[in-house]
Amino acid sequence: MTLLGPNQYGKAETRLVRVARDGAVHHIEDLTVSVALSGEMAEVHLSGSNAAVLPTDTMKNTVYAFAREHGVGAPEAFGARLARHFVTSQPTIHRARVRLAVHAWDRIATPGDDAHSFVRAGRETRTAQVTFERVAGDSWEILSGLTGLTVLNSTGSEFRGYLEDGWTTLPETDDRILATDVTAVWRHEDGEPADEVGEWDASYLAARTHLLEAFAGTYSRSLQQTLYAMGSRVVDQLPGVEEIRLSLPNKHHFLVDLAPFGLANEPGDGAVYQAADRPYGLIEATVLRDGSDARIPADLTGGGLR
Ligand SMILES: O=c1[nH]c(=O)c2[nH]c(=O)[nH]c2[nH]1
């Protein structure tokens, strides 16, 4: 005897590029959009009837058609438009989750008035996830985030006073490099999402700036302490943000032992480090507004929103 458990289906990673032309000046929007729907899906699994199923191919078409008809704009607003559409247009669909990743392009400066050349901007990616559910009333969950934001402090970081057992060899340090690739996801307060692209963009840029300023401005006794400073800065400064989850790999930089060559190599001017890519410490936590629930799933920052 078996039962169907929780399920969802959809079109994953639709790649969408939209080019707006303002005369010779072009603007590019480049996103990856994943749609996951759920609702009255027992029959398709149990008897094979597709009567309640909106094809995933249709979801892909809808993403492209909405981009053509209404534009894209902020990922939160585009995701909300799509999520609302799937749930309100099909009685068998009760819940839609739309994940979006925005791939940034910078302009290549060219002589003359033409502006249609771009260079992909690093690995930093803005992300969003919008979930709209219509069961007993409407419920929205809007998550914003970023991944691949690589930052480094060349001093102002120490790590000492930790537990030691028979396996501990790490020397204490009061001056080290602190570097990480920030993955962050923050949740907005409940309620109908704003359609206002400018509001989402301003809120995103403010969160990003607070993360960077807190990273740079915190004298760090551990990456855990830095994480908390970054997260609490965002929650303190953005009134509509209820929680933020951060995943911070500790990109270790080890002072190279150059004593065999008669060279001192201490923290200070001219110090030489080995940038190790793995293994890495992985520091993860949620920072919450007092009175809020921790709802951002842990696996979302572990590579989920991409
Ligand atoms: O900031 C750090 N936190 C740790 O928990 C840790 N553990 C370790 O070996 N180095 C570091 N650094």
Give a description of the structure:
By secondary structure, the protein is α+β, with helices and mostly antiparallel strands. It has two domains: 1-135, Urate Oxidase; 145-306, Roll (Urate Oxidase). The protein has helices spanning 42-46, 56-70, 75-89, 197-217, 223-237, 298-304, and strands at 14-22, 25-39, 93-107, 118-135, 137-153, 178-188, 241-250, 253-255, 273-275, 281-288. The protein has an eight-stranded antiparallel beta sheet, sandwiched between helices. A hairpin with a 2-residue loop joins strand 1 and strand 2. Helix 2 (56-70) packs across helix 3 and helix 4 runs antiparallel to helix 5. The longest helix has 21 residues, at 197-217. The chain is globular and about 75 Å long. The two termini are 37 Å apart. Bound molecules: uric acid. Residues 159, 170, 222-224, 250, 281 line the site of uric acid (URC). Uric acid is lined by residues 159, 170, 222-224, 250, 281.
Question: What is the end-to-end distance?
Answer: 37 Å
Bound molecules: uric acid
Number of helices: 6
The number of domains is: 2
As a percent range, the share of helical residues equals: 25-40%
The quaternary structure here is single chain
Beta content comes to: 35-45%
* Major sheet strand order: 1-2-3-4-5-6-7-10
The succession of helices and strands, N to C, reads EEHHHEEEEHHEEEEH
**Average of pLDDT:** 96
Largest sheet: 8 strands, antiparallel
**Level-1 CATH class name of the largest domain:** Alpha Beta
Q: According to CATH, what is the topology of the largest domain?
A: Urate Oxidase
Can you tell me the residue ranges where pLDDT is under 50 for at least 5 consecutive residues? none
Query: What is the correct CATH architecture of the largest domain?
Result: Roll
Shape category: globular
Assign the CATH superfamily of the largest domain: Urate Oxidase
Task: Give the number of DSSP strands.
Answer: 10
- The structure class reads alpha+beta
